[in-house]
Amino acid sequence: MTRSTSLALPPGLSLLWESADEHAALRDRFGFADVGEATDWLVAALHEHWGLTVRSCGRLTISDHNAIAWVSTDRAELVVKWSRAFVAKLVGSHCAGQHAPPALTE
User: Fold this and answer.
1) Using CA atoms, how far apart are residues 23 and 90, in angstroms rounded to an integer?
2) 78 phi-psi bin (left φ>0, alpha ψ -120 to 50, beta other)
3) Is the pTM here over 0.85, yes or no?
């Protein structure tokens, strides 16, 4: 089966179904200032909770109040999905944009 490149999602940050500004969506929906901050949070979460070491995150896509990341780890290539509600639960007022996301702790 051949995948059409015209339908593939671009690398980096994008929106799945919307034509809004992806950087504003990342900030307003998840509270991350930029892709680097979101990636740092994801790297920490995967390491702390699942013992995975992320080698790279080539794509981050936002769909409504969900984020989907394509990551390469020390164990496998993964597609990771999380919701705004999950981030809010873990980092409290972070989703209101009041402060940078802290390192995850139990």
Assistant:
1) 21
2) beta
3) no
